[in-house]
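Methods — Computational structure assignment.
A single polypeptide chain was analysed. Its primary sequence is given first, followed by the predicted tertiary structure written as structure tokens.
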Amino acid sequence: MDQKKRTISGRKKLNHHDKRKRIYLYLNAYELEILKTRTKDAGHKYISEYMRYSIILENYKPRHLNPVEFLNDIKNLSLEVNRVGVNINQIARHLNELRLQNIIPMNVSDAIDEQLSLYIMQQQKIITKLKGVIL
């Protein structure tokens, strides 16, 4: 056995780039609990592993969320969007009645249609973003 390639304990010597360096980070109790929670929520067992992934990998996106709270927030957001949609349907129904009776001028009707279309596009963007977060 070549003595130059092994340490006293028998472990192979590491290259300069493979050697791990220790860093020290001082946190108060609250900050430490947040770090532990984020580590656990991101699916890591060790804080050091979580920090390495967070620092080194460019596309690493830890969740930082409690899944139950996140799903409850999504549910509440869905209910809010649904309520707004119901209100918009009521407005559209009333607008159509006014159009049929020729009470509302065409330029006002067109402006309202344009705003409703913009709302629908924004709603679709929100849904697309939520799908990106969830999936």
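Note: The helical segments are 29-41, 47-56, 67-100, 106-134.
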